[in-house]
């Protein structure tokens, strides 16, 4: 398998999950600025949408969306318990988390990263994102991970996007549970390995 990634992007999430899985894969750097691979290949030939992550299987088929990719990886190694079993209620709870992180948190950062966002709109976007993060902080009040005591692929995704707060000037100092979650995640060997691959360690 190949994982197309860009340092600092949401592709860190499947990078972490692949490290947790123990599956063999090749990380392939894909610049989201030049849209080229290191060998000069046009990344748009890999993903016409131009963004990462992309998981390419050994047979050449590809998955584009992070929440689909992490669940696919988890299902290849069910003994690792990276996701609850398909068909279980817990699996739908996992999908609930993945969907919330994707649509309410990940997308919330978009206006703050986009250079074309009007300056007078940024405080509105920050307030909306802060509200979502405050709710997530409350959900982590009595548990180590989003699903409870067991790490899941949703944790890899939330860890990835919550790290962006520093880049957009969002202060997490009042969100003690998220801070503790980030520290807990940073201690996981798979997270450390993924960050090293991406040059972020």
Automatic annotation (TrEMBL):
<feature type="domain" description="GST N-terminal">
    <location>
        <begin position="1"/>
        <end position="81"/>
    </location>
</feature>
<dbReference type="InterPro" id="IPR010987">
    <property type="entry name" value="Glutathione-S-Trfase_C-like"/>
</dbReference>
<dbReference type="InterPro" id="IPR036249">
    <property type="entry name" value="Thioredoxin-like_sf"/>
</dbReference>
<keyword id="KW-0808">Transferase</keyword>
<feature type="domain" description="GST C-terminal">
    <location>
        <begin position="87"/>
        <end position="201"/>
    </location>
</feature>
<comment type="similarity">
    <text>Belongs to the GST superfamily.</text>
</comment>
<dbReference type="InterPro" id="IPR036282">
    <property type="entry name" value="Glutathione-S-Trfase_C_sf"/>
</dbReference>
<dbReference type="Pfam" id="PF00043">
    <property type="entry name" value="GST_C"/>
</dbReference>
<dbReference type="GO" id="GO:0004364">
    <property type="term" value="F:glutathione transferase activity"/>
</dbReference>
<dbReference type="InterPro" id="IPR004046">
    <property type="entry name" value="GST_C"/>
</dbReference>
<dbReference type="Pfam" id="PF02798">
    <property type="entry name" value="GST_N"/>
</dbReference>
<dbReference type="InterPro" id="IPR004045">
    <property type="entry name" value="Glutathione_S-Trfase_N"/>
</dbReference>
<protein>
    <submittedName>
        <fullName>Glutathione transferase GstA</fullName>
        <ecNumber>2.5.1.18</ecNumber>
    </submittedName>
</protein>
<dbReference type="InterPro" id="IPR040079">
    <property type="entry name" value="Glutathione_S-Trfase"/>
</dbReference>
């Amino acid at each position: 398998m190949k994982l197309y990634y860009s340092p600092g992007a949401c592709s860190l999430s499947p990078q972490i999950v692949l490290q947790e899985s123990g599956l063999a894969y090749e990380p392939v750097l894909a610049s989201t600025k030049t849209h080229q691979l290191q060998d000069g290949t046009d990344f748009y030939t890999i993903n016409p949408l131009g963004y990462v992550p992309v998981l390419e299987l050994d047979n050449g088929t590809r998955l584009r969306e992070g929440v689909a990719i992490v669940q696919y990886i988890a299902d290849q190694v069910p003994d690792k318990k990276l996701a609850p079993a398909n068909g279980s209620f817990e699996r739908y709870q996992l999908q609930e988390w993945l969907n919330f992180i994707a649509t309410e948190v990940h997308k919330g950062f978009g206006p703050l990263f986009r250079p074309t966002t009007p300056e007078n709109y940024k405080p509105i976007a920050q307030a909306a994102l802060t509200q979502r993060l405050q709710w997530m902080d409350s959900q982590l009040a009595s548990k180590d991970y989003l699903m409870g005591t067991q790490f899941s692929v949703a944790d890899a995704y939330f860890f990835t996007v919550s790290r962006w707060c520093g880049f957009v000037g969002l202060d997490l100092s009042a969100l003690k549970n998220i801070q503790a979650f980030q520290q807990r995640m940073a201690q996981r060997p798979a997270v450390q390995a993924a960050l090293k691959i991406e040059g972020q360690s």
